[in-house]
Amino acid sequence: MSGYPNDEITNIGRHSSVSNGEWNQQTIYDARNVLLTQHSVDVSQQTPEQRSGKIVKPPIYPNHILHPEIIPSLDEVPAELIKRRHKRFNDPSNIDSFEIEMPLAIASSLQDELERAVQHRAAKDRNHDQTSVPESTDSENNLFEGVFEKESYPIIETIEIDEPLESTARQNLPRTSIYDKSCLREAFQRIKIAGDFDDMSHIEDLEDAVGPLLRAMVIREKYMIFSLQSFPPTVAKFLTKTLEQEDQSRRASSTVRANTEPKLRANSGGTSVQTPPKHTIASISTRTIPPQVLPNQKPPIVESNLPIKSAAHVSDDPHPFHPPVIKRDEAFNIPLLEAADVCVKAEKGIYRLYIPDDTKRWVQVDYPVVDRNQFIDDYTLLSAMITDGPLKSFCYRRLQYLKSRFELHCLLNEVKEWAAIKSTPHRDFYNVRKVDTHIHAASSMNQKHLLRFMKKKMKTSGDMHVYKTKDGKLMTLKEVFDELKITAYDLSVDMLGVHADRNTFQRFDRFNAKYNPLGQSALREIFIKTDNYIDGVFFADLLKEVMSDLEDSKYQHAELRLSIYGRSVDEWDKLANWCVRNTMYSANVGWMVQIPRLYDVYRANGITKNFQEFLTNLFQPLFDATIDPSSHPDLYRFMHHLTGFDSVDDETKPEKPIITADMPYPEEWNMKDNPPYVYYLFYMYANILTLNQLRRARGLNTYQFRPHCGEAGAVTHLVAAYMVAENISHGLLLRKSPVLQYLFYLCQIGIAMSPLSNNSLFINYNRNPMLEYFERGLCVSLSTDDPMQFHFTKEPLMEEYSIAAQVWKLSSVDMCELARNSVLMSGFSHEVKMYWLGPEYQESGVAGNDIRRTNVPAIRIAYRYEALCEELRLLGNAYKCRQDRKEKDRLLHQMEKKSTSVTKIERAVLNNGKHESTSNLPKPISSATNGNSGNNINMSRNPTTNVKGAAFHKQAKDNLQSILDNFNAIISLIRVDDPQLNPIKDQLPRILTNTTDDFEIRVRAYNMVRAFESLLKLVSDLKDQAVLYDFRAINDAVKAQRQRFKNQQSDLDTKLISLRDRLALELVKFEDEYANKSSFKILKE
């Protein structure tokens, strides 16, 4: 068995009482097979094709991602929102009833998983020496299919999403005391929801909500997949299963782009960019590539005092609990890639990729892109959704239900959860991995730490030149403090004035001023800036002490944010040089870059000319370093440690909240006004998308977009973040928008919350919605934001957890779940997360949890997963029911329309016949005019006329006989009187048996039409003959006979037209039934 982490299977055959020491002895394997786990793993992941410039075949995205317009029901969402804009959502008459059963009685997936896990462990115990893995059974492939059995305890009725496992290795569950057959049935208690579920009218506003919610989820999935960010697999499978089952004929117009395989070749010379046709680019939908060892790469240095086992013993070891430690000196020894034959060009604010074709002309690479107009349409739709009455009402009720359900779950299962974590050896809250996902590097230390550091530097580096004034004068550190008339002895935390207090509440401007120690911007530049006269040496030393504290704690990690302002194009190189020169690496620290939204300041000071220059300063160096690493070697190495981007600033600044299509493009935005929040987010996202596609094509790591959002300002900021952000920081305003909060729950979007920071700036601690979010099941974690302003202790993250636990009475299980969430939403690599959470952490439900690493019991994980699946099943059933109803209504409307049309024709014919009969009555003949009116003069007919009359008679007889024969044959073929069809005769009176009958019916119907046409021609001939008949004998008797003939002709004409129209109506109905055979079969089932 391979020694790679992906190939290892956790050893579950060991009894849960095995000592911690024995477990640790089995966590070491061959270090030569260990890759750079946190920073340089992306280099080692490059395949030979990627190193040679080849592009891997791009993925086939789901149709509903590339072409959301192919889902007709979702295209109706904007019209639905407008239609019910002024409708009262609490009107009982607006509650629609459904005609399909809602199956909610489905057993728990946890019990089935545990049963299979026990069986699997028993099989491994019996075959301890065998390494083969049995194949998956049918029951395993239907792991989440509901099997409802009688239970001796309350059972929750949840939905189950079909998620077959790839192998039984993914069923290897961590051992706890409850994982025993004797207590599987009572693993944990669930709530049973009983009632009449024949329809779903008891759930108010469900039908009004399901379409917009599904559309919103599809929108987010599209933006996440295109930018190579993550989207929950459970939700993705649900959307695919729900939306791809619609009638495929509705998607006839949708096509997936053709995929070719262009290459990125070594740069062979410059050519000009011409008007490009499109070529395709490779992209990989997953965020990581299976690790591979390059033959020419030096293996990482692993610090370990334990002997290295041979490869023969590796296959028997479980996956190690701790990743190998990379020496700081080796962290930036990353080999450079060769330059790729590709160039980039900014077009309307978004960078596009070009590669040369065979004729050396630059052609645009085809990869998923997001058009600004499409983004505006999606943004406008979501903005309208959050104000829709029925949708808000539905989402609020579901959120309240989730909160109440969690409270009941805790009441019923808190003891069992405690029992599970108590039976787990060694692990507790203090030694589970927890990540501070929202912390700024400039304030990552507490105020006392900064004070001690400043005093130390005053004593050890007082004579060092550290500051250059505006007039060019150099000052030592001692001179700077002498100018302030302050000595090291005088300094105190109160004098520093960096801690937030009650005066910063709702005053973000005062909070920003707290970054200046002693209120002096010069001290901020000296101590907490990377770009200053001393090249950020003091700041590097200060952060190394912070990283040292994190390393001492071992289980605490942080993603520090460094600033890039976009003022000049060389900022990235300066920051990268600072990192590489000072070896700013720690296994406990990841790096992010925050971009302040300060374009208006730069424009007012003449630093930038337009917004495009601001974007160029931000992204051009990143593209250059990715295409040709030798042009920016330090930046290329630093980018391996970078995990994502952040957008920061005061959200309360006045702005135009809505982005419109007539807004100027970045190269045209040269006014002094700052662009709105959503404008910033769109162009940052669009360029990160292009950068991620390029880096994935080259086998490098990709980046997340994790902006500050929802702390203050407009709720529409959260709409933009919902569309483009992997996760967000703060999210306080979600409490004001039930629709967005429910969508954040359904899509499991991470929210890094900082209650202590919010308490000093925007909302009191007891009003913070963090606990409410957590209870409802949103993916939330605790973070510190700015320890220098808000915390007092050496471990600010633990301080955050401890205060939250005290105020909200969080249990150890709750805090461990929050810690697990923080790891999941962090930007640390997939390989590192496998160590921290378990090799199967990406699996859904209990299969993705390892209690020995996370200390989160399977009961809690199963509850969260089942609650999410129930909400998805509710939406899925409602959507299916809605589609069935719409299809029924469409068919009925079509039939009624045709029936109404035929009825109008019949009435017109009858009215016309009566009018003609009345107008054609013979007029009385005056005796004065005709003296011998009483005589019946019998005039002989012309022989030619008699022959024509016989021909007319025969033709009419033949046509009528043909119509009757064909009609009888049709009736016989469709078997109206078949006794087997009696039960459904009312719903489906005519059913075709096979295609032969169908063809024969069509032929006979055509013959009937031909016969009708012949009859109509015959009537026309009879009219002509009657008009021209015997005009030579003009007398009263002939007139009377002619009048009687005309009357008979009119009656016959009326009857024939009536017969024709009735038969035509039947034919129309037949044709409609034949054209909708599939629909009728559905109704039959």
TrEMBL record:
Cofactor(s) needed: Zn(2+)
Assigned keywords, A-Z: Hydrolase, Metal-binding, Nucleotide metabolism, Nucleus, Transcription, Transcription regulation, Zinc
Main location: nucleus
Region feature (Disordered): 116-141, 243-278, 914-938
Enzyme class (EC, first level): hydrolase
GO cellular component: cytosol; mediator complex
Annotated InterPro entries: A/AMP_deam_AS, AMPD, Med22, Metal_Hydrolase
Keyword hit for Acetylation: no
Skewed-composition ranges (Basic and acidic residues): 116-129
Entry superkingdom: Eukaryota
Polar residues biased stretches: 130-141, 268-278, 918-938
One Pfam family cited in the UniProt record for this chain: AMP_deaminase
Protein name as annotated: AMP deaminase 2
Species in which this protein is naturally found: Rotaria magnacalcarata
Lineage, highest ranks first: Eukaryota, Metazoa, Spiralia, Gnathifera, Rotifera
